[in-house]
Amino acid sequence: MDEDSALDAEIAWLREFEARRGRALRVLHIGNIANNAFLNATFLRRAGIDCHVLCYDYYDPMATPEWESEGGRAAGGRRPEWFVQGPQRLCLPYLHALLDRRTLRLRILDARMRAYRALVAERHTRTLGLGAKAAVRRLLNRAAYARSWTSSLLRWAGRRTARSLGFDVPEPVATLSTGPGDASVDPALRYAQYKGRLIERFARLFPERRDQLAAADFFVWGDAPRWAELFASYDVVQCYATDPILGLLSGTRPYVAYEHGTLRDFTLGDNPIHRLNALAYREADHVFVTNGDCLAYAERLGIERYSPMIHPVDVDQHERPHAAEVEAIRERAGADVMLLCPLRHDWAIKGTDVHIRALPAIVASTEQSVKLLLCEWGAEVEASRRLIEELGVGAHVEWLEPLDRHGLITHLQAADVLLDQIALPHFGATAPQGLAAGVPVVMSYKPESTAWIVAEPAPILSAFDPDGVARAVETALDPEWRREFGERARSWVHRHHHQDRLVLEHCRIYRRLIEERDD
Questions:
Q1: b vs e for 237-269, b when ≥16 Cβ sit within 10 Å of the residue's Cβ?
Q2: Which regions of 344-404 does DSSP assign to beta strands (E)?
Q3: Are 419 and 339 in contact (CB under 8 A)?
Q4: Nearest CA to 49 among 235, 232, 231, 230?
Q5: What is the DSSP letter of 121?
Q6: Sign of CA pseudo-dihedral 455, 460, 466, 471
Q7: DSSP code of residue 65
Q8: DSSP run (H or E) holding 478
């Protein structure tokens, strides 16, 4: 069965599900780093799945619907009601109101979250670094836990006082429970019992780890059981990055874990997040793995139910021409050759400095004028500025503000070459975006690193140091090479990295999970 026929079969199953249940398949996506949840939900909604996206306590501009729209936030307009972003205490009741179609409550909560984002969250996001934001979030979580603990202590003191006055006030009865949802036990006690079983489970699954799961590791997750009621309203809960911990601690089934570098970065360290996240991915009903090198981490954790997943890229959007804007960008750059490097300036993670170091050789290799476009974001912007000055190539560099989706697409279409990361052997979302826009890509690509995700090597020019980058750019500027490249890039993207493949793979897994649950 070819891919088109396979997708048609899954769409037919979705229609059958809807006919049986009287509603569409309902999926909640939690966490929205790099807008992956929003994009996945957008594509799946087009297929007829009723997807909601929960982006709680996270306000990065790149995790908003506006980032994907022409004109961004400045263009105005309303967000889709199925995307909710705000503090957890408002997001959860908002989704309950959305599910129950309580329109007035929905509007009130939406207004409160818009006010919170404008007055508190987004202002702090612009002024605080990532480390400071994480510290603030930990502080708020601990304050919430302390408030809950204080409430429990006061109830205990109240029972003691009442008994001392002669009243018959029994203590909560400790009985065995089967999971977080057992209604026969006091919720706090029920959760304590469940945590005990998870600690034992971790010890059985990871006996070789010196850092074993402990009761203290659950300190900031005291409210996890509150999520169970919300999750019960969905057929599938898909949790991104470290949010599979919510799926695990709430006792939800089925939950899908979606990693985007998470298995590499947040599973093996000696701290509570890594321990809980390792267990959450191991216990997930299915895991989507998006990065080539993370296969080794999945196998190391003993994950058995996983499959590769491409990064969400709207290929059709990137192919749509923007001739007038492209011409304006080229005119502003004022150069014969325009190189675009939209990478974050974090040298160890992205290798942005390698492209800067290659610039003198690129300029020397051509009689044409050259301009390198860099985006002004990341922890080492000033270090990059100093390097540019040391190399004496300031006249060949133009700085841009971070590009939203539309801005990135128009600059990709205007560029002669896209300079992607020089740190990892596998591509993420940027390289397929460049190929979809028809621009040659230079990066530290080793095809074998992603062969298990995409069997056919991508038409990417590989480079691993400044000299390699300069040679790759020289190749990318060769007219003979470019004539063949355009068709190869378009063909590869449509066969291997089109959003239809993403929809097909999601539907296959959702169908299996639903059928297993219903058997």
A1: bbbbbbbbbbbbbbbbbbbbbbbbbbbebbbbe
A2: 370-375, 397-400
A3: yes
A4: 235
A5: I
A6: positive
A7: G
A8: none
Q: How far is CA 84 from CA 94, 97, 264, 420, 510, in A?
A: 8, 12, 28, 31, 22
Position 3 scores a pLDDT of: 77
Same domain as 98, residue 74? yes
Range 214-232 average pLDDT: 87
Between CA 66 and CA 73 the distance in angstroms is: 5
Which CATH number is 118's domain given? Answer: 3.40.50.2000
| Digit-coded pLDDT (tens) for 2-45 | 777 899 999 999 999 999 999 999 999 999 999 999 999 999 99
Enter the DSSP assignment of 233: T
pTM: 0.86
Q: Are residues 297 and 327 in the same domain?
A: no
Q: Do 363 and 414 share a structural domain?
A: yes
Residue 258 pairs with which residues in a beta bridge? 240, 288
Q: What is the DSSP letter of 457?
A: P
Main-chain phi, psi angles of 195, to 5 degrees: -60, -40
Residues 6+ apart with CB under 8 A from 261: 290, 291, 294
Angle, helix 499-518 to helix 3-21, in steps of 10 degrees: 40
Residues 308 and 372 in one domain: no
Report how far apart, in Å, the C-alpha atoms of 404 and of each of 156, 170, 223, 229, 370 are.
Answer: 53, 59, 35, 36, 24
